[in-house]
Amino acid sequence: TLEGIGLSSNEDYSIVSEAFPYLSKRLLTDDSPRAKAALRSMVYGAEDKDASNATPNLSKVLSMGDGFTSYSSATAAVPQAAAPPAAGKAASPAPADAAP
User: Fold this and answer.
1) Under DSSP, is residue 100 helix (H, G, I), strand (E, B) or coil?
2) Given CA atoms 53, 58, 63, 68 in this order, what sign does their dihedral have?
């Protein structure tokens, strides 16, 4: 595994720590129900807790904010590639009256 390779050269290596900036960004920006549930679990603890009565874990919130900032800073200079068409959808053909 990737973590095993990392541990062979650094006994303190943690793939979760390395991926945390990306995970933070994803949890804070993804609107999917799955991401929202993961964020809620991360901030408030176990899924079975009622978030309306739970106290957020401030250190996790701050850590996620730092991770988001770190990821955003690291990727700011990377040019964004054009997104390919969605799976199963072909590019829209040009209108019949469009000039070649």
Assistant:
1) coil
2) positive
Residue 74 token pair: 């690291």
**DSSP-H helix ranges across the chain:** 2-9, 15-29, 33-44, 58-75
Give the tokens for residue 39: 């964020």
Question: What's the CA angle centered on 21, arms 43 and 41, to 5 degrees?
Answer: 20
pTM of this prediction? 0.53
Distance CA 73, CA 70 (A): 5
Cα–Cα distance between 100 and 94 in angstroms, integer?
A: 9
Q: State the amino acid at position 66 in one-letter form.
A: D
Q: Each residue of 34-81: pLDDT tens digit?
A: 988 888 888 887 765 665 677 888 888 888 888 888 888 888 877 776
